[in-house]
Write a structure and sequence with these properties.
The structure is a single chain. The chain has 214 residues and is of the alpha/beta class. The protein has three domains: 81 residues, Arc Repressor Mutant, subunit A; 51 residues; 43 residues, no CATH class. It has nine helices and seven strands. The strands form three sheets. The chain has a three-stranded parallel beta sheet with strand order 4-3-5. Strands 1-2 form a two-stranded antiparallel ribbon. Strand 6, helix 8 and strand 7 form a beta-alpha-beta unit.
Length: 214
């Protein structure tokens, strides 16, 4: 049985991100195509790899075992690529944070990373909680304490929220209306507060926080 590296890469993305929808952004494939590829891989393995749930895909015991082996293959392929293209540090530190925090860290990258650290950094920008236990991220920066017993956390700072208006008032602002966030970004505390207190006055929404800011 020959399992292709392309199929393993797709499997890794779905497993780490917990479902087809989240993996569409990294694989650039549709959810339908990903679903067919995953099903074909399961037929090739001869065992189900995921338990399909409304909240996402959960690995079966066979899927957990394939994940460990696929990560070994991934490390070997990355090592081969580095050998071909030149040397880079082996260690990748994945930092998961929401779009605002990721943007803030990116703007101050020189204060948290230097080439002498011997690592590479990768941002996993999402407001959803990624599975650190499955190495989808090494560090998670969130506005709420972790609930998983196997995770350690500490408060790194405080964020203040307030209501703002644009420099040039438009008719919506003059009328007392708001802009708001929809999609996964609506799960953060500030968005929940706005929905609870002024949800009936949100006139414009967007699923990209930066476009909402503009």
């Amino acid at each position: 049985m020959d399992i292709g590296w392309d199929d393993l890469r797709l499997f890794l993305d779905v497993a780490r991100l917990g479902g087809l929808s989240a993996a569409t952004a990294t694989t650039r494939l549709s959810a339908a195509t990903l679903g067919r590829r995953v099903t074909a891989l399961e037929k090739q393995i001869g065992e189900p790899l995921f338990v399909r749930q409304q909240t996402g895909y959960r690995l079966t015991p066979v899927g957990e075992e394939l994940l460990r082996r696929a990560e070994d293959v991934e490390a070997a392929m990355q090592s081969l690529t580095r050998w071909r293209e030149g040397s880079l540090p082996d260690r990748i530190v994945r930092v998961s944070a929401g779009p605002w925090t990721s943007a803030f860290i990116s703007a101050h990258i020189g204060e948290v990373w230097t080439v002498d650290d011997g690592i590479r950094m990768e941002f996993v920008t999402t407001t959803d909680r990624v599975d650190i236990g499955r190495r989808a991220a090494d560090v998670g920066i969130r506005s709420e304490r972790p609930t998983e017993q196997w995770l350690a956390g500490r408060q790194s700072g405080k964020v203040a929220h307030a209501l703002y208006s644009g420099r040039h008032l438009i008719n919506g602002i003059a009328a007392g209306l708001f802009v708001g966030v929809t999609g996964e970004g609506a799960n953060v505390a500030s968005a929940r507060w706005l929905q609870a207190h002024h949800g009936d006055r949100i006139a414009v929404r967007g699923n990209n926080t930066h476009s909402v800011r503009e």
